[in-house]
Amino acid sequence: MLGATDPEAIRLVGQTVTCGDPTWAGPLAGVALKLPVYHIFEPVVKSTVPDDIYAAKVGNLEVLYDVDQVVSATAEVRASLAATP
Amino acid sequence: MSLKDKKVIVIGERDGVPGPPIADSLRAGGADVVMVMTQCFV
Fold it and tell me: Which residues of A touch B17 (CB under 8 A)?
C-alpha cells in the first residue's frame, strides 16, 4: 500500500515491488516480487476503511494532491504487473 | 475489495502520506499490517 503522491515516485516504488528495481541500484534489482500495488487514495481502498477513521488519518492530506493522477499512476503499475510473465 | 485479514506492507512517503496513518486506516479496515515504512525521495 503506497502513500507517495508523485507519479514518478509511485512508478519507482511500485515497479520495485512488482517487476524489480527499475534503476538496478538496490537489492531488488532483477527480483520480481509480483506484489499487488494499491494506493491509500484509491476509491477501492478508501471504501474498505471506516469513513471517520479515513477522514481523520488521511482525508486531510487527500485534498492537497491530484488524486486522479495518483490513481492512474497506481493503475499503470498494476497493469505492468499483469503484463509480467 | 476486502482487506480483512490480508497481509499488507505499507510504504508511505514523507512528502505524501506517511506510513503510520495509512497503517492505522488499514488496520481499522481489518487488514493485517505486517510492515510500515516512510520513505523520503528528497
Answer: 3-5, 40-41, 58, 61
Buried residues in A63-84 as b, exposed as e (16+ CB within 10 A): eebebeebbebbeebbeebeee
| A49:B25 CB<8 A | yes
Instruction: Report ipTM for this prediction.
Output: 0.93
- Strands B7-13 and B32-39, bridge-based pairing: parallel
Sort out which chain A residues have CB atoms less than 8 A from B13's CB and list them. 2-6, 9
Q: Determine the structural domain holding residue B12 and report its residue range.
A: 7-35
pLDDT tens-place string over residues A41-70: 999 999 999 999 999 999 999 999 999 999
Q: Is the pTM of this model over 0.95?
A: no
E strands within chain A? none
In a domain, A77, yes or no: yes
Q: How many domains in chain B?
A: 1
Q: CA nearest B26 in A: which residue?
A: A49
CA distance A15 to A57: 26
